[in-house]
Amino acid sequence: MPPALLPPPAAPPRGYMSFSRAQWAALRDHTPLGLSAAEIERLRGLDEPTTAEDVGDVLHPLSRLINLYATAARELSQVTDRFLGRSSVAPPFVVAVAGSVAAGKSTVARVLRAVLARWPAHPRVALVTTDGFLHPNAVLASRGLMQRKGFPESYDVARLLRFLAEVKGGAERVDAPVYSHLTYDVLAGEAHAVERPDILILEGINVLQPPPADRAERGRLYVSDYVDFSIYVDAAEDDLERWYVQRFLRLRDTAFRDPQSYFHRYAALGEAEAVATARRIWAEINYVNLKENIEATRERATVILRKGAGHAVEEVRLRRAPLERRGVGARMAGVEG
């Protein structure tokens, strides 16, 4: 479709400012944080044509904004510590990256980590995905949840909350469980050490979910309560499905061929059958999760990255004011001591 015939973008949700890619790129303010083509190639996901221009136009300005937020949070923490008469130790600044399966949030998280780590104010940037906090397959199978993997009930939320509480509480080292996309399961006995980062990026499809409305204990903390800044990677449903099918086909020709792969059975599928299988999985699992759980969290994000059909971010939406949070910092004394 010629550019002149493209429909105008939908109005941003209430409470958001909308920026075209060019307008957002101008906010980079000459930030000299470029990544090499080799680094970008290593960090991007399958079938995601992330370029140096994508990083410079979108993630460099975003890193500048996060740097300003993190600096302000650290200064506020210092004010509180001065008031209390204690030495100042700012807790890690937590950035959540959410979005649908196949939206490209993992690439955003990895590249953003590399860019943020180049800021001298916070060189220690850790990345943890919530995949490791899924219940092991044996537990999911015993509960009849293998077809609901990735849905909120498939996660060990209590373990994830303990992890976040310890990180925010200033623990010297906190171990995060490790997930294998080859075996499609949590790796027993393996851990990823998180050692007092300046910034923690938490990436996962459900990291922005609030407590259920009918929750019996309304005062309890939830994962999103530990988040200081949040990003939702957004795209049209048809594009998400198409990207998922493309990724499935690429994996059929690569990772699925490994006999150790949980999905090895799909490696022998012909083109038409593979496409039909991918679309069925999308329709029965990923699309359902998107509509029931993930999409509803979009307007809870600080920033929404709106992608076009080619995987490039075309619009950035920035919340005018942060959502009212439930005072995690005020309750951290119980975690610390």
Structural class call reads alpha/beta
Q: What is Rg?
A: 20 Å
- Beta-strand percentage? 15-25%
CATH topology heading: Rossmann fold
Extended strand count = 9
Give the CA-CA distance, first to last residue.
61 Å
Low-confidence segments: 1-8, 324-337
In the sheet with the most strands, the strands line up as: 1-9-8-7-2-6-3
Roughly how much helix do the residues carry, as a percent range? 25-40%
**Mean model confidence by pLDDT:** 86
The helix tally amounts to 9
CATH class equals: Alpha Beta
Order of helices and strands: EHHHEHEHHEEEEHHEEH
CATH architecture: 3-Layer(aba) Sandwich
The profile of the biggest β sheet is:
7 strands, mixed
